[in-house]
## 1
Amino acid sequence: METGLAQVISLSPARHRDDVLTGAGLLPVLPALRELLPGGLQRGSVVTSGGWGLLSLSLAAGAVADGAWCAIVGVPAAGLRAAAQAGLEPDRLLLVAEPGPGWAQVVASLLDGFDIVLLRPPGQPSAQLRRKLEAAARRYGSVLLVAGDWPGAQSRLLVTDAEWTGIGLGHGRLRARKAQVIASGRGAGERPRLAWLWLPGPDGAVTAAAAPAGVAVAGPQGDYAGAAEPLASSG
Amino acid sequence: MTGQATSRRVLVLRCPDWLDRDSVGGDSVGARAFESVVAIVGEFCPQVEVLRPGICAIGTRGPARYFGGEAELARKLTEAVGRGGFACQAGVADGLFAAGLAARAGPAGLLVRPGETPEFLAGLPVYALDMPELCELLPRLGIETLGQLAALPPAEAASRFGPPGKLASRLARGLDPRPLIPRRPAADLSVQLEFDPPAEQSEPVIFAAKALADQMHDRLAAAGLACVRVQVQVRCADGQELSRLWRHDGLLSALAVAERVRWQLDGWRGAAGITLLRLVPDQLVRATGRQLALWGDSVPSDRVARAAIRVQAMLGHDRVTRPVLAGGRRPAEQVLLVPFGDAAVPQRPAGQPWPGQVPPPAPATVFGVPLPASVADDSGNEVTVSGRAQPSAPPASLAVAGRPASTVIAWAGPWPVTERWWDPRHARRQARFQLVTEDGAAWLAALQDGRWLIEARYD
């Protein structure tokens, strides 16, 4: 499998280097994520988002809305209605739900063609495999978004705290989830960035939220709690 | 042009067994079995056009004369297919679009008499067009039926709604989607390959089919044409010949054509090796860019298409898909997966209101096959729901797929859902709940036939 991957990579010349050099080095992200990823997603980089979830989908949404194509690999249960509500147009999505044992080769092939490959790797890929895929992303100027762990990632985003609103004990319904997301870079000097997001808001969109901090959640972001109090909380 | 000429009479045979699948077009096992239905239809009329597994069409002019009228033809045909062990519906009308709708119009289908097709179409909702963007837009403008759409001047429909509007207007008026080019220069555009010695295995033939299809597409493109259908002819060393028509619409990739050749060969147990493969483009129309645009899709660039096709070559045609949002009440029903390169035709339009649909926000994880679960109350008894939609006790703990139970800290429901009560095979009664567990996860759970299922996770 490893040799097959090497072949795929060496067969395709670095056709898209020009794009990378001529200032197309960043893919846009949703406005709500700009604080976490200033400028957007760096082409040729690896970005992780913890496990699979709406955060993974919303990371790709801004670029896809801007005309980029995204392939989702290894997530048979991807909620595509949620993706659409978060702004990820199904029109420019490709799904490879079961990439099989040759998944790395599949990802390498997709990186040469798709601007974003959103991958949930099966198990823990070896360091050698990771390096090859990182090299493929660099060569083709695409972004590898990983829903999982990836030690060499340039940026890591993580939901560190979340609470659902709108639902009580036997009344209401799930309306919105307010989540704290922390982004950290690989550089030692870089400070982690923190933002509160509606992940998702009541219409499924991902927008900026005010920090809870004991104050009433109202004002421009609106209060989605309805009658019920915020309930669920995770650490 | 030939635009105003009435469409030819068409009979569409529809086998619900294949069409109730959640994914359209791609299932090669389904396609294989459907070949036996096509073989039965082929005894009535050799020119069978397979639209996709589950639906095929024949022109009725010749066979109706032979079998004593269209009604008699439809009756004999459905009986023969029924004897073969397959449920089916037959619809007859002017043109393929109307015939397809006529087949769905009643339990056994419907015969629309010649010239009455516009009246038949007039009463149908615009959702019947299966063009998601238009179907959402038109009702907002007060155009709710095909009749109202047909009443718009065609030029106006074309200028207001672009190419999809032009297509929709033609369909609503009972015309063929695009005027056919009357002469048939098909012979010079066909491509073929001889196998010497005869190919004993199907793989090399399928491989050759991809190259041939590329060649055919190049020739069509050079002539500024697209084909509505492609005829795949296979000849054996013993002189036997098997020919099938497949719907193309300028939409199939070379790989998708090769996949159809595979279906055709799989369904056919020819004794001798294969000596000839020929692809004949049928019913030529002027190419208006990639026809994908007609379905409101984004057109993939060559670079994207090349990557997708390369992965299809590794994994198989139908394991690389594009999602199409469709209607439905269960989250898993709301998305159809269409193999890359195939046309997207949702059967349950997304624009329709689906009472009982789970309200937004939608869950980010949707289990195609719901996970078994157990929901218990404070004293450890499984929670049930009465006929009057009252839970036996508040849910207190949730265990998903055999994992340890976690405490439920918030819940809502039950919302009763009764689906398709008119269809005993698909009828479903559920009581839905949303549950939030102490680890912060939120779940869409359903109690159905006394069993708890997890349909989706909000994460």
## 2
Amino acid sequence: MPTKLHPALIGFTVLVFIFLVGPLIIVVGAAVSDTSYLTFPPHGLSLRWFENIFAIDAFRRTILTSLQVAVLATFVALLIGIPASYALNRYRIQLPGWLSTLFVLPVLVPELVLGFSLLKNVAYQFNAPIFLSLVVGHTILILPYVIRVISASLASFDFSVEEAAISLGSPPLKTFFTILLPNVRSGVIAAFILAFITSINDVSISIFLTGPGLSTLPIQLLAHMEQFFDPTVASVSVLLMVLTVAVMAIVERTLGLTFLAK
Amino acid sequence: MKRFAGWTLASPATLLILLGLVAPVAATIYATFGTPGGPFDTYQTFFASSFRRTVLMRTITISLAVTAIALVIGFITAYVVSRAPGWLKSILIIAAVFPLLTGVVVRSFAWLIILGKNGILNSTLTQLGLIAEPLQMLYTPGSVIVAMVYLFVPLMILTLVGVLEAIPDDLIQASASLGARPSATFTQVVLPLAVPGLIVGAVLVFTGSFTSYATPQLLGGEQVMMMGTLMYQQAMVTFDWVSASTIAAVMVVITIAIVLAMTRVARRLNPMAV
């Protein structure tokens, strides 16, 4: 029998969810307004601000850069994060305890500090290309998410299945692709998506590793907002929300969204 | 060979974090001690400036306010969500995850539309005749706090729903059948069991607010400068990298000290661990 809740608590919760969803609805309304200034409720309906996104060269370029950085960083993070999570689960006794602490460091160290340090001590000191530093920064940022999600799905994997395959003569690499990977498939998909969305939305690292000629979408949005107050930013926001909805649908299909509440 | 298998597999990720995070951040902090005026010169300069002390105190105050508000809102909401029937719970969790996955720029921008001089709130209040002139809401500590609470409440809800779900209904009903009033059950049964989760949530929100950049930049501007925006300004506008490194070091030390201290407190206060 479920616990009965006081009506005041339920009323409060309704208000909280209006507070959470309301501002995003306002952004959607402002994006479709047929005015040259931001307003809500929208005056007339128009999609011209969506067309405007692609008419502005800076947005076209930064959307492309953001996608490139996110794809590269996510790919590298999975490439090195999957073996690391495997090692943490399979060879726990061999590895020192501080290693798992090391892998959560990117969450502990403020992103701004990481971004600034990469600029000062990598890009500037060693003349490393900014784009490379940006990808490295994003990879480090998303690595803990990848390791956490993959580890969670490895926790329910029975390693004796893998040992059986190897003792029956299956080569290690083939065992990985035919036994292990299919078993953690949903974890890999969820990790990919969380990593991708985290990279796409990042501000605090990217703000230091962008400049004239190279920028990401959120940084371009910040710059645009300081000069113009037109609905273009709202329509880009709507595009990003559509991306988020698509991502949530995929996570829901693979893992269930309640997975995120753990 | 097998002895090193674990290390071989973990080494690329380990190297990336050591070379891409630990070394550069350590170098940033190390550089703050190597100035000509002595090892703590940069820190003396930092704390001697009343402007910077104000920024530090403001950042702490705003972050504490955001944490306190998010704790209250998040706890009550998470409690209701955790006791909701299955289908409703899923919808509510989706409604909390969606803002969380939407970027910080988009979410701060929403408050720019709401709180602006010609924003929704001002025009509504004017139309209702409650105010004659639009109020200056942007670029005040209040606007930064509201936008940050908005930013972090979903995180708090999701952290606490998991903790509160783990409290069995039987326990709450047992308390009620033994004569405790609902408010007593809430404060004496539910609240103590949720303390570890509340601490985790509070740490996440406090450190997140303390080191944030986009929200104070958009809604606070020059008027409500915080540690993150000051650090960016020193690094990229005035190009004073020593000063920026000092702010970075202060942020790292405070963040890590809070995480370590609160993890210990959480372990000690966990009633389940006894």
